[in-house]
What we know:
Shape: elongated
Oligomer: single chain
Largest sheet: none
Number of helices: 8
Distance between the termini: 24 Å
Order of helices and strands: HHHHHHHH
Strand content: under 5%
Amino acid sequence: MLFGAAACGGDSDGGDADVTALLTSALEDQVAGRSDEARETYQRVLEDDPFNQVALYNLGVMDHAAGLNAEAERNYRAALVTDPNFAPALFNLAILRTAAGATAEAITLYNQLIAADPTNAAAHLNLGFLLQESGSRSQGQAAIDKALELDPSLASRLP
């Protein structure tokens, strides 16, 4: 999931428009598969706005897709500095931490995401799977049931 340019920062001297234009350009390059160009433009955004969560998050998405998990994790965590409840970064970071075997941290991240957005069905589902795997069967089933209540199409992801 990519995150668009609407949620961006910038400086107060008209830089917001410049940052938004750069983010839009980077996102277009990213969607078109021009990763090098997108990365370069996101880096330009970060020169002006070092904690721009959109640029950091989308760099994380690109790193994640390329299998650069340490870099993706660093970018997701940096995106969370500005807003610790930034749902896309929390979700993707939880996925990375799950893959790294950091189950307890992933559970914490999913719980944080659900606290910020109780309607995030995918977070409930992933949390449910992790809870069941870690021995909390009834809590896990409750989270899975909530996920299915919120989005019945997730039933296709059940074993």
